[in-house]
Design goal:
The protein has 295 residues and is α/β, with parallel strands linked by helices. It has one domain: TIM Barrel (Alpha-Beta Barrel), CATH 3.20.20. The chain is built from 13 helices and ten strands. The strands form two sheets. Strands 1-4-5-6-7-8-9-10 form an eight-stranded parallel β-barrel, surrounded by six helices.
């Protein structure tokens, strides 16, 4: 569950309602393509914009559509009380693990973040993935805090953001040295996934795998087998998409890709979020052409 390919699907919308039928199709596509797990209600799944009932419905639909592939459930919320409520709902819905980011309105201290993970891991029976996403949460983990949190019983994996260009292997080596043995280390930032897996990451927590799971599976297989040239070539083949991720952010680009490829209906994002403008959509269409991708 904390190795290989973890696909993070969108939560498609139909106006102001979650499109559970479209969600099921997205999840089943990724599962059938060989994803080792599914990160439902991650940032790509727009968990922060959904009510409790919507989150529960998404998880129930995803678990059913996953066909036995483990589902990692995003449970982030501003209050610890609500995180615990979402964690209980996730377990009832059949999720296999929790995905937790330190969401906040007031900036959190390291003591507060450590306390959050200690409380959630202590009160839930499900293993927890630490979701380190400073671009969204505004909180930056130190290596020392990562090591402390990873030492909590029940913490199974750490999902880190993309290191700076040229520093991937060094970053992974430095972080790994301080973690307890057996802690899974996962990479986000799809454009560095091949390099990170080759450098020792266990799992790719992948945005693009929710739309292009076969291409993501191929990249992971090459990287984990040590086929460096083939893994890097598989990543380079998607560089037009990676370039758009770096420019516009992965969520809006992924939504546009999914819509243009017919993976989801239009209106994949909940208001007030809006998709790319006309210029951005043209660039997505061109990236699809350059990459030669198809569903």
């Amino acid at each position: 569950m904390f190795n290989g390919l973890s696909a993070f699907p969108l939560t498609p919308m139909d106006g102001e309602s979650v499109d559970l039928n479209a969600l099921g199709k997205v999840v089943s596509r990724a599962a059938e393509a060989g994803a080792d797990s599914l990160g439902v209600l991650g940032s790509t799944g727009n968990y922060a914009y959904l009510s409790r009932d919507e989150r529960r419905a998404v998880l129930e639909a995803a678990v059913e559509a996953a066909g036995g592939v483990p589902v990692l459930a995003g449970v982030g919320a501003v209050r610890t009380r609500d995180v615990l409520m979402f964690a209980a709902d996730a377990q009832s819905a059949g999720a296999s693990a929790l995905l937790l980011a330190p969401v906040s309105y007031q900036k959190l201290s390291e003591t507060e973040v450590f306390g959050l993970f200690k409380t959630v891991a202590g009160e839930s029976d499900l293993p927890v993935v630490v979701y380190d996403n400073p671009g969204t949460t505004g909180f930056t983990f130190s290596d020392e805090l990562h090591a402390r949190v990873a030492g909590i019983r029940g913490i199974a994996s750490i999902k880190i953001p993309p290191p700076a260009a040229g520093g991937v292997a060094e970053r992974i080596s430095r972080l790994r040295a301080g973690l307890p043995g057996g802690t899974s280390l996962g990479i986000s930032g799809d454009w560095v996934a091949a390099e990170a897996l080759l450098a020792g990451c266990n799992v790719w927590y992948s945005v693009i795998a929710g739309v292009l799971p076969h291409q993501a599976r191929t990249l992971v297989d090459h990287a984990l087998a040590g086929r460096k040239d083939l893994a890097l070539a598989a990543s380079s083949a998607l560089e037009p998409i990676w370039s758009l991720f770096r420019t516009y952010g992965s969520l809006r680009v992924t939504a546009a890709l999914a819509e243009d490829l017919g993976v989801v209906p239009s209106s994949a994002l909940p208001l007030p979020l809006r998709g790319l403008d006309a210029e951005g959509r043209e660039k997505v269409a061109e990236a699809i052409r350059l990459c030669g991708v198809e569903v």
